[in-house]
Design brief:
There is one protein chain. By secondary structure, this protein is mostly helical. It contains 6 helices and no strands. Helix 1 crosses helix 3 (37-44), helix 2 packs across helix 3 and helix 4 packs across helix 5 (67-84). The longest helix is centred in the C-terminal third of the chain and has 18 residues, at 67-84. The mean pLDDT is 94.
């Protein structure tokens, strides 16, 4: 996956870095967490989201718990949506709560 400056970081990029750090490939990870190889390859390439199912497996394998993987996915999706909706969000006037 080619990274551009200012582009949101997909959880697959983090996963690829972790696999490189521990010295195993995506196929071996897939085998060890009991998922199809294409699931791991698609996450790493940014073509697939990390689901709760996968987050539970990754969290167990890496000893991080699942929330870190779901939070990475959630942060990525919010960053992407924020960039896509920038002009719309700028046009929204926030509600001002008034006390009487």
């Amino acid at each position: 996956m080619e990274k551009k400056v200012g582009q949101p970081i997909h959880p697959g990029e983090i996963l690829a870095d972790e696999l490189e750090f521990i010295g195993i490939n995506a196929g071996e990870l897939a085998r060890r967490i009991d998922v199809p190889k294409n699931r791991v390859y698609q996450i790493i390439s940014g073509e697939r989201s990390v689901t709760a199912n996968t987050a539970l497996r990754l969290g167990k394998f890496f000893g991080t718990g699942p929330k870190i993987w779901l939070n990475l996915q959630k942060s990525y999706e919010l960053d992407v949506a924020s960039k896509q909706m920038d002009s719309i969000l700028k046009s929204i006037t926030p509600y001002e709560h008034r006390t009487t």
